[in-house]
Amino acid sequence: MSSRTPVAVAASAGACALALGVGAPAMAASDTAEDKSMVSVFHGIPGMTVDVYANGNELLSDFKPGTVTEPQSLDAGTYDIEIFKAGQDPDGTPALEKEVKVPEGGNATIAAHLSAAGKPQLTAFADDVSQVDSGQARLTVRHVAAAPAVDVRAGGQPLFTGLSNPDQDTATVDAGTVNTDVVLAGTDTVAIGPAELKLAEGTSNVVYAWGSADDKNLALATQTLSGTESPSGSGHTGGGSAAAPNSPDRWPAWAAGALAVPGVLVARRFVDRRP
Description:
The protein is mainly beta.
């Protein structure tokens, strides 16, 4: 392991305390809500149960594909992250490794997933938790599968087209139940689904297309972000200054390829929709 900065060590101490379900120690640089980041992690690498270490300390063991960690906030700071196959000696070579500088006041989900070519990789996505208009819901689709470009259909009609790994697209739709499927871009060839999505009014929902086309284990998983409900009777979205602490524009530099710490993460409800 490389030498650690004081910030990295302090961040790791706070992370470990949170992972163990106890209060984090006081930190000079993280004593207000603005010093926290809201971060979640999705594990989308099939057949790879992992252990996760931060600055040499185990944070999570037996983290299984198709799941997301329990919700927590994450202290801003620097994290030296190593991911090993479950049970592997942590003094060995990790399957994935990344040094991460987590900024203050953001909201994001980190996906450990396969590239289009089938190689494990890490992608950070900014989560939009601004308010949604009355009667509406936000739907975001993230392509994190080893598969070619796809179209996503709702009720048989294209909603997102030409979506490639590791991109995402977002639309505001009527709240309610939506029947969706994923087809190869420009065709009617179904790759995943159909699946029934229940989109509650005022929620922000994320659908992950994950797995491997070659291995025939493509699947969908959904995530519902909290904190997006519109005020009763209001037709105004919360995309203005009131939503700034959780706005995607707080993450642009970090979201280019960061990894956050599984086990030290934020409020999310998660449903595995594997067939």
